[in-house]
Amino acid sequence: MRNLIERGSRRLQRAGVFFGHGTDNAWDDAAALVWHALRLPDNPAPGVYERRVSAAGQARVEELFDRRIRERIPAVYLTGQTWFAGLPFKVDPRVLIPRSPIAELIEQRFSPWVPASRVRRILDIGTGSGCIAIACAKAFPNARVDAVDISADALEVARENVRRHRLGKRVRLLISDHFRALQGESYDIIVSNPPYVGARELNALPPEYRHEPREALAAGRSGLDSVRVILSEAGRHLRAGGVLIVEVGNTERAVRRAYPKLPFIWLEFERGGGGVFLLTAEALAAHAAALESVEPGNRSLAHARRGTRQAKSRRRRAERSVRRPAAARRRP
Length: 332
Ligand SMILES: C[S@@+](CC[C@H](N)C(=O)[O-])C[C@H]1O[C@@H](n2cnc3c(N)ncnc32)[C@H](O)[C@@H]1O
Prior knowledge:
The protein is α/β, with parallel strands linked by helices. It has helices at 2-15, 26-37, 55-71, 75-79, 102-107, 131-139, 152-164, 199-203, 214-217, 225-234, 252-258, 281-286, 301-321, 326-329, and strands at residues 81-84, 87-90, 121-125, 144-149, 171-175, 187-192, 238-247, 265-266, 276-280. It binds S-adenosylmethionine.
């Protein structure tokens, strides 16, 4: 076994495959393929590395390595399973491979940003495999989680994962373009790993990314299409004391440039990764006017224009409300 993994890992390195989709090094990638080909359980008995492997087993392993190298398919698409926040998830090319640093935050129950005991409702925008929504439901056993995605295919995979983790009663899957299906809903936590790859960056990505759904990655010319919609609408769906947490990866610079006045808190992670910001409900409310502007050419322009009309009438209402006594302006 050990020799098979070592040999496979050297093959992967020689072939120059890209790591970063569920595994981040050649040994783990090779081990995942060997494990799967030999149908080993997730927690095999000690001494497994010293086991002899039959000729048929070795042939199955070689076949998987051939596909990994020739077709540049990420290892976990070949095995059909990956891990996120310590939980197993089914994955296939209908969903992005879970790898968000947000896993670490969920494991810490978003401490110190929200009092965990008060969290009742969570929203995950762009749920893909359902990994963030499901991990949140596990971390907050008293909370209900809404998980939306624009892709019906992705939601099928998410449904299988919700069933696998027996969370059908607390995780609701909805097809929705961002907040569109969520009129009138409000949350303590809104979390999202939306598409955020800009056009130029998208074309330069290693071939492994081409196996992932394009709509999970592509976010217009500058990578900001989805983030802009989330920023402009999240305030309306956050409860007092709530937080918005969004991964934007390498698009962090573009986000800072586009919203110089927004008081983003850029989160740090012990296990690596970055490009994740947090905004409080109060910060979003205070900067509502700045969040109305939408870049021309935005994929969601029509949606945003409608949002802008709504924002204008919100502003008119707000202007009227400043004349009222403070107590009357307090949120219910
Ligand atoms: C980067 S993937 C994240 C998947 C998953 N949350 C994760 O972290 O692995 C982005 C997801 O957003 C979905 N998506 C893209 N555009 C969307 C939109 N306008 N509204 C809702 N979901 C969208 C994609 O289908 C994809 O599943």
